[in-house]
Amino acid sequence: MTPRRSDSDKHGPIALIDKHVPVVVMAPRDTLFDKTVSNMQEVMARKGKVVLISDAQGLSEAADGVWEAIEMPACPDVVAPIIYAVPAQFLAYHTAVAKGTDVDQPRNLAKSVTVESTEAQSSNSFTIIAKSITGFEDTQRNLIFSQAIQR
């Protein structure tokens, strides 16, 4: 499952759609609603199974012919990304559980550590990102951290 903006479905990704491909469409009633619905209709024309997530007004305008519809509360545009993240997180969690994935130990998780260095004149913050890789020993990680702090 790869999230995509509504204007990036041309050419490659749309060619992969068929009756076996579920597509989750998050369509808050905002300035991009019409474009998102247009792309959703292209998916439905290729027999893709669409799960539409929108508010009541959005569902009344665009839910005809979708596989499933999930109603969200109406909210201001500024908080819509936060509100719409909730069903996305539930979907990701339940998909991982259904696949038998350990949700408490995700793969390829980027770990972030902030180290503060106190110096006479200023305090520097270093954010070090180390990708969790199988076989990446703690001593190697500590070496990377200490080298970044010395810079």
Describe this structure in words.
With 151 residues, the chain is of the alpha/beta class. 38% of the residues lie in helices and 23% in strands. It is built from five helices and five strands. Strand 2 (49-55), helix 3 (56-62) and strand 3 form a beta-alpha-beta unit. The longest helix is centred in the middle third of the chain and has 20 residues, at 80-99. The protein starts with 11 loop residues before the first helix and ends with a helix.
C-alpha end-to-end distance: 39 Å
| Mean pLDDT figure | 77
Side by side, the strands of the main sheet go 1-2-3
Kindly state the percentage of residues in helix.
Answer: 25-40%
DSSP summary, beta strand count: 5
CA-based gyration radius: 22 Å
- Main pleated sheet: 3 strands, parallel
Class by SSE composition: alpha/beta
What share of the residues does DSSP label as strand, in percent?
Answer: 15-25%
Shape: globular
Low-confidence stretches: 120-136
With helices defined by DSSP (H or I, 4 residues minimum), what is the helix count? 5
The helix/strand series, from N terminus to C terminus, equals HEHEHEHEEH
Structure in a nutshell:
With about 150 residues, the protein is α/β, with parallel strands linked by helices.
List keywords for this structure.
151 residues; alpha/beta; globular
Topology:
Blueprint: H1 12-15, E1 22-26, H2 33-45, E2 49-55, H3 56-62, E3 68-72, H4 80-99, E4 110-118, E5 123-131, H5 138-150
Parallel strand pairs: 1-2, 2-3
Antiparallel strand pairs: 4-5
